[in-house]
Amino acid sequence: MAVTDEGRGGRTPVVIVDDLHVKYRVFASGKAAGSARSGLLNLTRGVREVHALKGVSLTAYENETIGVVGSNGSGKSTLMRALTGLTPPASGAVYARSRPNLLGVGAALLPNLSGSRNIILGGLAMGFSREEMEELKPQIAEFADLGDSLDLPMRTYSSGMQARLKFSIAAARSHDILIIDEALAVGDKAFRKRSEARIRELATEAGTIFLVSHSMTSIRDTCARTIWINRGVLEMDGPTDEVVRAYEASR
Ligand SMILES: Nc1ncnc2c1ncn2[C@@H]1O[C@H](COP(=O)(O)OP(=O)(O)OP(=O)(O)O)[C@@H](O)[C@H]1O
Ligand SMILES: [Mg+2]
């Protein structure tokens, strides 16, 4: 399927998920029982399979911000990781116009460096040049609003402060396809509001955004469309109002 084809109503599809299945193989501890006869452990006996996504299909279009809701362990993060290509499918496929970015320059940041040094580092990890980052740094620092803490090592930050810094770095540029998985959850209310506004802005600038959240307020304020993942199945996909109402009624 060519993702450049015009979709329904002339909209351009950006991501197509086609009957996606994801399975994890996990070792259940304590199950790898030894055999008295050989003295060897049977390592395969404890292997259990978790069927995390069971045939999910959806199409995301340009300039859409799609909310992703569902209870813990329902498969939201699994779907998001599959979109980035980090989690290989058992079957089915994901087609995308470009590789989606999962918000979180986390892997690139260094706890012993200051917040300001990490802004540069995170920017380099996203493909900016050092010059571009020096230029962008003041506005990232302003958005993060961490005051003098920016001069302190990142390991001294609270989890909320770290999340603010990561969001601020990632949100500095527009992404074709951006995935935000619970990144707003630990910020305070003022920061969350600012971040939601920035997400709406990013969606108009370029791309398609997936916002995973347990905050129905965030989802309602930010997304016109929402998908509900329930036990690995796409339970509902439609206007946020309807989907959130159905999801809340189910709990
Ligand atoms: N790396 C992994 N190895 C094995 N099983 C996993 C792994 N990651 C997730 N799972 C399992 O897959 C299922 C879906 O998990 P997932 O993290 O996608 O849920 P989620 O909807 O993001 O939940 P939450 O709201 O808690 O973030 C769960 O049963 C979980 O235990
Ligand atoms: Mg998750």
Task: Describe the model.
With about 250 residues, the protein is of the alpha/beta class. It has a domain at about 60-105 and about 170-250: Rossmann fold (3-Layer(aba) Sandwich), CATH 3.40.50. Helices cover about 35% and strands about 25% of the residues. The protein has 7 helices and 9 strands. The protein has helices spanning about 75-85, 115-125, 130-145, 160-170, 190-205, 215-220, 240-250, and strands at about 15-25, 45-60, 65-70, 90-95, 100, 175-180, 210, 225-230, 235-240. The strands form 2 sheets. The protein has a 6-stranded mixed beta sheet with strand order 5-6-7-3-8-9, sandwiched between helices. Strand 6, helix 5 and strand 7 (about 210) form a beta-alpha-beta unit. Helix 2 crosses helix 4 and helix 3 (about 130-145) packs across helix 4. The longest helix has 17 residues, at about 190-205. It is globular and about 60 Å long. It starts with 12 loop residues before the first strand and ends with a helix. The model is unreliable at about 1-5 (pLDDT under 50). The chain binds adenosine-5'-triphosphate and magnesium ion. Magnesium ion binds next to helix 1.
